[in-house]
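help with this record:
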Amino acid sequence: MIFTTTNNVEGYEVSEYIRVIAGETVTGINFLKDIGATFRSITGGRSAGYEEEAVRARETALNELWNRGQELGADAVIGINFDYSPMGANNDMLMVTATGTAVKLRHKQ
C-alpha cells in the first residue's frame, strides 16, 4: 500500500475514493522521562526521551492507519496528516492521530 502526504500518486490516478480513515494512539510519559525533560527545560537542549516517545507514537498511529486501509482493500492512503494533542489531567499523555483518504488506484494511460 502506498502512503503519501500528497493528494496524488505519480503514475497513477485515483479510481475510487473509499473514505477518510484514521489511526490513533495515546501514550504516557513516564516519571523518569519527565524528570529528564524538566532538567532539559532548565539547562537547554533536546529531550531524547520525549522525542523517542513521539516517534514511537507516530509509528504506532501509522501502523493503525495501514491496518485500516488494508481492511478496506485500499491501494493507497493519500493526504496523510498528523495531529499531536496533549491529554490527561496534567497533560502527561500524548495522543497522535494520523488521518488520510483511503483510495483505489489505476495506472495512468
Notes: Residues 2-7+23-107 form a domain with the Translation Initiation Factor IF3 fold (CATH 3.30.110.70).
